[in-house]
Design brief:
- A hairpin with a 3-residue loop joins strand 1 (596-597) and strand 2.
- Strands 1-2 form a two-stranded antiparallel sheet.
- Mean pLDDT is 85; it is low at 1-13.
- It has helices spanning 3-24, 29-50, 62-80, 93-111, 113-119, 127-148, 150-165, 180-189, 197-218, 221-233, 239-255, 258-275, 280-294, 303-312, 316-345, 358-381, 388-403, 410-444, 447-457, 462-479, 482-492, 494-499, 504-516, 526-535, 539-549, 552-562, 572-594, 606-624, 635-662; strands spanning 596-597, 601-602.
- It has 667 residues and is mainly alpha-helical.
- Helix 13 packs across helix 24 and helix 27 (572-594) runs antiparallel to helix 28 (606-624).
- The chain starts with a helix and ends in a 5-residue tail after the last helix.
- Among the domains are: 200-318 and 347-409, no CATH class; 445-658, no CATH class.
- Helix content is 75%, strand content 1%.
Amino acid sequence: MNTSDSAAAGRGAAAIEAEVAQEKVKFTGLARVVIVVLTTIAIGVSINQLFNLRIGNYSMLDGTYLNLLAGIFLSLTFVTFRSHGPHSAQVPWYDWVLTGFTLLVAGYLVATSDTATAYGWEYAAPDFAIWVAIAFYVLILEAVRRAGGLVLFLVVFVFSLYPIVADKMPDPLSGFSQPFTDVVPFFMYSSEASFGIPMSAFGSLVIGFILFGGVLQFTGGGRFFNNLALAMVGQYRGGSAKVAIFASGFMGSMSGSVISNVLTTGAVSIPAMRQSGFSARYAAATEACASTGGVLMPPIMGATAFVMASWLGLPYSEIMLAAAIPSLLYYFGLFTQIDAYSARRGLKGMGRDVLPALGKTMKEGWIYISVFVLLIYLMVAFRWERTAPFYAIALLLVVNQVVGPDRFSVSGFLDMIASVGRILTELVAVLLGIGMIVGAFQATGLTGPLAAELVSLAGNSLTLLLIMGAVTAFIFGMGMTVTACYIFLAVILAPALVQAGLNELAVHLFILYWGMVSYITPPVALGAFAAASMAGADPIRTGFEAMRLGGVIYIVPFFFVLNPALIGQGPAGEVIFVLICALIGIWFISSALQGYVSLIGTLGAGTTGLALRVMLFAAGVAVAAPMGGVAGLSHMAVTVLGLALAALPVAMAWRAGKAEETAPKIA
C-alpha cells in the first residue's frame, strides 16, 4: 500500500475506531438515569403530541414541541459525547454544567415559543432573546462538533456565518447580508432554519421509527432475520455470503446506520464466509455492500427518508414504495455477483444440518412478521405515517411479553431506551446544525439564483448536470452523515436538477443514493474499512472490491432519475417493462464484472474473455437503461440492440458451461 493509500486507510480507521468506541460505551449510574429519564420524557411528549392526547388538557404548538425535543436531546449530547479524547462513559463536571445550561436555555425557548411566534422574533427579537439565541447557537455548534465530527462542524459554522458577508461574495454566491445579531435569532426563532423541515421531520416521523427499530432489535428481531436468511439461502452455493446479503439488508433497514450494521452483523457473517472459502477481502466487501444497501431498503430505511418525506410534502409510504425498486435492483446485482463468484470458485453451500428449518424459523418469528405487516398496512392503507410505528411497537411489546422468546427484563428495557436515546441525541445535534445551513440560504435568498447558475454552468446539458450532482454528492458524503449530506444537497443541488426538467422525487432519491456511495468507495469507504478491520483484510483493496460488488449503486440512480418508472412513477405496464429490462441488464452487468454468467457458465480468461466481458457490460447498460435517444434509436430499439449484443457472450458462456459439465471428473 502506498503512502496515500495508508493515509486514507488511517483516516478511515480513526473514524471507525471512534464509531466502535462510541458503540461500546455503556453508561451507568447518574448518566444512565439522566439518559433514560430524558429520553422517556421526550418519547412521552411525542406520543402526546402525535396522538393529540392533550394530557393535562394542554396542547402544544408545533414550535413549542420541537423546542422541547431539541432542548432534551441537545442537552444529552453533553452526557453521551466527550469534548475531546476517547469516548467514555465518565461524564466530566463541565459537561454536567453544559447539560444543565442547555436545559435552561432551551427552557426559555419553550416558555417563550408562543410569544416568539406571535411577535415575529425571527425578525425583531428583544435584547435578552437575542442573547439566548446566541447561547443556543454556540451550544448547537459544540454539539455538532461532538456528534457529527470536525468536518461537519466546519461546514455548519462557515455557512451559518455566510449571511453576514453574503453581499461581499462574487456571483453566483452573492445575496442579501444581515448583521450577526439578526442572523442568529432567525436561525433559532424561525421555522425555516434549525427548527425547519429537518427538525419537523424528526418530531413527526423519525422518532417513532427509530424507537421501533430499537425495540425490534432488542426483542430478538435481528436474530430472527438472520435465521430466516440462513433457512432461505444458506444451502445454496456461496450460501454464507447470500445469508449476509439478506441479514445485513434486514438489519440495516432497522438500524439506519452502515457502520453499526457492519459491526453487528459482520461479527457473525464475516467469519462464516471465511470458513466457506471466501477470501478475507471478498467477505469484508460483501458485508460492506450489504450493510450499505440496508439503509436504502424499505420499509424503515434511514432517518434521511423521513426528512425527504417532509421536505417533499409526501406521505412516507410514497417514499418507501418509490425506493423499493432501486433497492431490489441493488440487492439483485449484489446477489448475482455473489452467485457468479461462488460458481467460478466452486464454493458450496452450508450443510443442512447446521441450518435452521424454514418452517420452525417462521413459527418462532411470526411476531416480527406480524408487526411489519401491521406497520406497512397502517402506512399504506390509512396513511398513518406518524403513529403507525407506535402501534407496531405496542403490538410487539405485548406479544413479546406474553409469548415472545426474548422477553424484556426491566434492565433490558432501560438499556433499549438508553440506546435509542443515544441515536436520537446524535441525530438531533446534526439536524439542528444542518438546519442553520438551510436557514442561511433562506435568509440570503440565494436558493433560486444558485439553481439557475448551476444549470447555466452545465451548459443546459442534463448529462453534465447529473454527473456534477453525483460528484458533488459523493464529495460531501465523504465528510458528512448521510442525512446531513442529503439536506445540504436538497437545498443546493436538487432545485437545479428539478429546474432542468427531472422528476422531483427521483432527484431526491438520486442525491440520497450518491450520498451513500462514499461508504464503499475509497479513499474514505468507512463501511468497507470497518468490515476489512473485522476480516483482517487490506482496507484499500477491500474498498475497490466493494466498488465492484456494489457497482449497481453507481448506475441505478442515473437510470431512475432519467426514467421515473423505475421508482414506480408511471403507468403499471411501463413500470413492469422497465423493471424486467433493468433486472436482465443488471444480470448482464454483474456477470461481466465477475467474468461468469450466473446460472450459465464462465466467460473465460485472456483477451477473449475480456472482450466478452466488455460486450456483456455494454449490453447490460443498453438493456437496463430506461431511455431512448441513443443514435436516434427508441427505448425499445436500444433494448433490442443490447439483447443482440449480449447473445455472443451468453452463448460462449453456455458453451463453456456445457463443456465443464461433460468434462471427466477427477476423483
